Amino acid sequence: MGLFGFGKKDGGIMDTINADRMGDNLIWQWRPAGQELQDSARANSIRLGSSLLVNEGQAAIFVYTNGGGKQDVILGPYNDTIKTENFPILAGIIGAAYDGGTPFQARIYFVSLEGGLQMDFNTAAKDGFFTIQPSQSNFSMYNLKVAVKGSLMFSCAPTDMQLDYLYQTAQQNGNTLAYEDFREKTLKDAVLKLYRQFKGQDTPLQVLKDKLADTMTNEIIDRFANIPEGIFILHLNKLIKQFSQYIYQQIYPLLRDSMGIWPTRLNITNITFDESEEDFQMLKRVTTGQAFNISMQNEENLLNQLATDAAVRNGMVVRQANIQMDHQEDMLDRMRQEAQFAQHTQTEATAHRTNLSSEQAYLGAHTVNVQGAVMQTGMESMGNMGNMDFGSGGGMNPAGMMMGMGMASGMAGQMGQMMGNMGNAFNNQVTQANAPTPPPMPGQTPPAPPAPPQAAAYFVLINNQQAGPCDMNALRQMAGAGQLNAQTMVWTQGMPQWAAAGTVPALALLFQAPPTPPTPPTPGSVPPPPPGM
Question: Which range of residues forms the domain containing residue 32?
Fold first, then answer.
């Protein structure tokens, strides 16, 4: 039958209508394969029952020539035959005389509803630098040349977040539509606005971006020429994030209403001043050389407040996405700070252990020196002890000699013991600083086993108080003194939990009674036979 099926009633196109040849177009008028755009009745005659395919992220607009230019909008995804129940306008213009299969006159346009689009702008690309003055009256005599670069994120239809907010606002104003009905109506209105903006012509997406770039350049220049009073112009690069949000809220309704696009974010990436200009140099010297009391925090608060007020006036709040991005940036910053703090703490702990080892070595050397001094004092006392007078009338005094020796010996012993105790106390501190944390008390969940120590050392539970770590010599002394018995709870590295000392093989020998010596044979008795006989 071919592409065109002309019958007794001047039938129409029987073809699959889709956007397979749309390419990188924002708006594209459908025509049969191999045909140029035509306005003839035959070229625009379409039958009921023809197949229509509209992909996700697209919409199709049927503009009825014989219906006064009225339009039906079909949102994708759609894959079905053309029938009146899905085309409200079509149902009203079809005549019963056509037996339901008549061709009808319509131009069909496919419109992209693509989101996440980006358009870059650069004011310098148009006219180079533009001139502005500071908003402060005492600096308004300075003319500064500025260039601004950035990008605008936008969609060709409202995003889900924007639809949600529009629906909430509509409900507050008395809307009674269900969400899905409201969403469909809003999207169809957005499609028709975009279609009318470009007068139904084939429109490459780049055409939209070029037109948007011109509009953005003009708006940016205008906004910079009217910076809110209280914002110092030379601070803008430090307040670039807040200033971007402020300008975004200012130009949002213009881009939405006049161009039919839906902005989602504005990023100013760079504000460049012509620093070779004399006015710039003079303003910088004046504001640097005097007490300039414009607070950055106050300026930031002012911009945030202005952006919020504009968002409320526009009836569209999209700051939630920006807040979420800021929150993610803060989380990453905190993670970096925590990692740096952990590394710093580990470095300090290593240095502390090194210092303890050095102090231990110093204390050991000092102990040897003190003991040597004590011994020297004792020897001197022994040399003079014969001169000690106990009333014997002079000469060598044996009693004095004995007493001097005893005093020197006692002093040396006391000093040695004192320094030894100091050394042991310090050693215990070092050992405890380097020793692993013992597990929880019996009945609690023990920790994961740490790395095995270089020498066996045990923690001991005495009178429900934890003591240790103790080496085998200390444990042997405690067992001899009755402080440690087979039922005492102990733990050392490698043990999953606390256990009775008598069940630990390495400690069990401490509680075994020495073997009883055999009873000597009674004189005259017969000894037992040797083994093997």
Answer: 16-112
